[in-house]
Amino acid sequence: MKNYIKTLALVGVLASTKLFAQQDPMFSQYWVNAQILSPTHAGADGRTLLNATGRHQWMNVKGAPQTYTLAIGGKVSEKVGLGLSYIHDRIGISQTNTINADVNYELKLNKKWKLISGIRLSGLINSLNLTEVATVTPGDPMFAQNLSSGLKPNAGFGFLLATDKFYAGYSQPRVINYDFGSSASINTKIIAHRFMYAGYNFDVTNTYKLRPSILVKEVANAPIQMDFNVANEFNEKLVLGLSARTGEGIGAMLGFLNYHKLDIYYCYDYPLTAISLLSKQTHQLTIVLNLSKKSQRVNSPRYFN
After folding, report:
1. 189-206 tens-digit pLDDT
2. Other Cβ atoms within 10 Å of 111 Cβ, number
3. Which residues lie closer than 8 Å to 77 by C-beta, 6 or more apart?
4. How does pLDDT run across 76-96, given as a tens digit for each residue?
5. What is the pTM of this model?
6. Contacts of 9 (CB under 8 A, 6+ apart)
């Protein structure tokens, strides 16, 4: 019993260490809500989309990550896209609320290649609810009050290079780092993250399409993390996906497309780390509503064609 308690304590230390290092929320199959990742994806496929995502990581673990996002984006002209998004992310006693405003510009390089450049203006509030911590010493002054960053302005940018078969992107959603506290024992820093990603679209037959992709995430004081994804699309109605994340685990996805202008994606992740002693369930649900008057679907534009 003592060994089991020690194991659980170790899991808690590992989990909290990783959570403080990797602040930006993680998603399975990042392309299902790519506008959160980069301002270049607002209207990138020619449609106006309303995207809602909810993710519960490590179910039944107290303080485990919970993330909710709402985003809308579309073209306002042939070359200009606009987007607006909201992110609510909670990890343990830490909670972050972020609002992003995106604008991007599409440049035709030639008949096949296009380059989309985007910028992001954002405001976020990060808070630490220290009074929720159960302390051994009653009245510990370190946990007597909650901390808040107040409203912090920030900015970000991204680039997306694409053809009808291939895409590659780079984004840094935030460029300004903050430290809103003074305690050496508690992490009060808001730091920048960088993302690189690429994918290729194989039209195997008229009814079957294979979509492999990779996402690389980099942030200070944490190891580089990579997501490997593959999506199998059938008749533009059904998507079956698999994913693997270095240092984390594996996952599967089920998606239904073109259902009354809705795309619905469910993702399940299975951890391969010590956290599996506490929980083996991570669930993510994404619902995408196409607000365009016409479907504008030509060779699956959801993959940035």
Report:
1. 778 899 999 999 999 999
2. 7
3. none
4. 999 999 999 999 999 888 889
5. 0.84
6. none
